[in-house]
Specification:
GO terms for molecular function: nucleic acid binding; peptide chain release factor N(5)-glutamine methyltransferase activity. This protein has about 350 residues and is α/β, with parallel strands linked by helices. It folds into 2 domains: about 110 residues, no CATH class; about 220 residues, 3-Layer(aba) Sandwich (Rossmann fold). The chain is about 35% helix and about 15% strand. It contains 13 helices and 9 strands. The strands form 2 sheets. The chain has a 7-stranded mixed β-sheet, sandwiched between helices. Strands 1-2 form a two-stranded antiparallel sheet. Helix 7 packs parallel to helix 8. The longest helix has 15 residues. The two termini are about 35 Å apart.
Length: about 350
């Protein structure tokens, strides 16, 4: 799980800052002053305390303090150059948060997703690498595939549950003529998506709307934007019984509402599928990140809802495993079949 959490971290000032303290339980012994030696020291500390991805965690923290995204991207001279007392203290402060199982993204305050540097802040859900695959699939369908009829020129995309804005902003950056409506019911997520849109100068092509997908009445508010070509979502899909199995990094710091999909992980998925046809253009598509157990459940559910005119057309497995369980994540495309183009 943590391998996904650590991928592609960005560099800027961390959200926690660095303050000198007389409490120094894990300060390196005298003489361990270079970046390489400090990485080795903190790797040993993390391993002793059972922190996952111990070396990766220490490398990202040290690189962050030295002004780089990754340890490997540091100038070679910095690997052996003595660190200043302030740098050592800063590393200790950030390392202490990692010892509390805080995800590295929250410690550093930024993360790279699809080449975009995004601000990260708890408790907003941290996007994982498998979600980058979902973005690539959407881009493939829009630019090459026949399924998204008429969307190639200037698609209008709805993202349900935008979180940090990772999916929406990635699609906007890769599809210059596209427009996005990004919705989320969490105030922290709405604020973070606004901030990331502004820092990437994409705010002119995105509408960010507070929205609860479980409220049928609130969907009428979205109708004024017109029918959309695509609905994209990484919804809460963890089976409720699996929530207690999640790593401390997730349970302690990330919003459980962004993870818990109910008894069968389907609570939000079925809301999206039930209400999206009201907003989709003919032969529009819905792209979802789901659990590997969900395609069969979704297929059965759609068969029980023939009036929706939705067809499950494809399912893909991601390359690196689920963000939350041992099983691989699935990505699923459902399509409006009212015009005869569904599969």
């Amino acid at each position: 799980m943590l391998r996904a959490l650590l991928s592609g971290l960005g560099w800027r000032k961390g959200i926690w800052g660095c303050a000198f303290s007389s409490w120094q339980p894990h300060q390196p012994p005298v003489g361990l002053l270079s970046a390489t030696e400090v990485v080795s020291h903190w790797t040993a500390v993390f391993e002793e305390k059972g922190i996952p991805e111990a070396r990766e965690s220490s490398e990202y923290i040290v690189a962050h303090v030295l002004g780089a995204k990754t340890f490997q991207s540091l100038r070679p001279g910095l690997w052996t150059q003595p660190l200043t007392p302030w740098q050592l203290q800063c590393i200790q402060e950030l390392g202490s948060y990692r010892l509390q199982r805080m995800p590295v993204q929250y410690i550093l305050g930024e993360w790279d997703f699809q080449g975009l540097n995004l601000k990260m802040a708890p408790p907003v859900f941290i996007p994982r690498p498998e979600t980058e695959e979902l973005v690539e699939w959407v881009l493939e369908e829009v630019t090459q595939g026949p399924r998204v009829v008429g969307a190639e020129s200037s698609p209008l995309i709805l993202e349900v549950g935008c979180g940090s804005g990772a999916i929406s902003l990635s699609l906007l950056s890769r599809l210059p003529q596209s427009r996005v409506i990004a919705v989320d019911k969490g105030e922290a997520a709405i604020c973070l998506t606004h901030e990331n849109a502004q820092r990437l100068q994409l705010q002119d092509r995105i509408q960010i709307v507070p929205f609860d997908v479980t409220s049928v009445e609130s969907w009428a508010h979205l109708l004024s934007w017109g029918p959309v070509d695509l609905v994209v979502s990484n919804p809460p899909y963890v089976f409720h019984r699996d929530m207690e199995k999640l790593a401390p990094e997730i349970l302690r710091y990330e919003d459980p509402v962004a993870l818990d999909g109910g008894e069968e992980g389907m609570d939000i998925i079925t809301h999206i599928l039930a209400l999206a046809p009201q907003l989709l253009k003919d032969s529009g598509s819905i792209f979802l990140e789901v659990d590997p157990r969900h395609p069969e459940l979704v297929g059965s559910w759609l068969q029980s809802q023939p009036d929706l005119s939705l067809n499950l057309v494809a399912m893909r497995r991601d390359f690196c495993g689920s963000k939350d369980t041992e099983a691989p994540v699935g990505q699923m495309c459902a399509q409006d079949g009212t015009s005869g183009h569904g599969h």
